[in-house]
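Before drawing any conclusions, I needed to go through one protein's amino acid sequence and its backbone structure tokens, quoted below without any editing.
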Amino acid sequence: MNIDGQPYRTIFPDPDGVSVQVIDQTRLPFAFELRRLATLDDAAVAIRSMVVRGAPLIGVTAAYGLALAMREDATVAGIDRAVATLAATRPTAINLRWALDRVSANLRQAQPGERFARAFAEAGRIAEEDVASCRSIGAYGGQIIADLHTARGGGRPITVLTHCNAGWLATVDWGTALAPIYAAHERGVPVHVLVDETRPRSQGAALTAFELNGHGVPHTVIADNAGGHLMQHGQVDLCIVGSDRTTASGDVCNKIGTYLKALAARDTGVPFYAALPFSTIDWTLDDGVKEIPIEERDGREVTHMTGRLADGGFATIEVVSPGSPVANPAFDVTPARLMTGIITERGVCDASREGLYGLYPERRNAA
């Protein structure tokens, strides 16, 4: 995607060949800054502090983090230590563990002196696969938007509601939930996006809106609790969200608040899709509500907000009554029964085990 006319990915090798650069998402939307990751600790801190975020991007960053760890300690113990450190940073997104398992399995087949180069190359392949997957998700999901526009008789834009940020900032490029919107926009299908602000970290208001602004896609930022009202009044045609972990049975774990949108969509007859790559599917789980670990983040994300002042400066302010206890679960699970379908790089399917097996038949025998 472009920033002021220059193409960027969210993560890319540094010219020095031994580190990577990432976009510091904690500085957006008011400042665009890159951060260099050169060590295992750099990568772990970037993931934990949400300098990088979004399930696919977390996975790629973890893969590069494991490679960087090999510069410090390329022994088997070093591999194990790096995997444990990175796996502990964010417990919900399955892409992180998937990427670590893939790279570490590759490393165990190599001699210590080969491990950094081998891991760095494997991380690069994972990044390229993510770009290809997201581009394909865009093509399949964009067709859903185009078909809906045709079915509605053309004319007015298709209004899509999304939650959190599942655009190119959450992946290496293109995005998951936003990829269909970009694809539809680029093929001339009129689309308008309703952007949930997504408290407490405001990824919608800060990141999704930043992306859509840069790409010229019409959009409106709304309060998190406005979506149901707009659906009741026929102002939402379609919902598309991302996912941090999807079970083999089609339950979708995404940013907190997604479940409530799915309930409203079901009540009002609005189609509700999740867009995700293969690396987000956890084939070992069946019941997302009972089995997916939900990250509990620092309550300060709820009690405080940071923003830009009228004079251009920045300030962090307290917005909750001092002394009040705070809970901050970062995700919730939308049961498969509330999903219209799942959009992947292989196509669109029902949110069910049989639906997913239809796209990934090789998993039927592996289960």
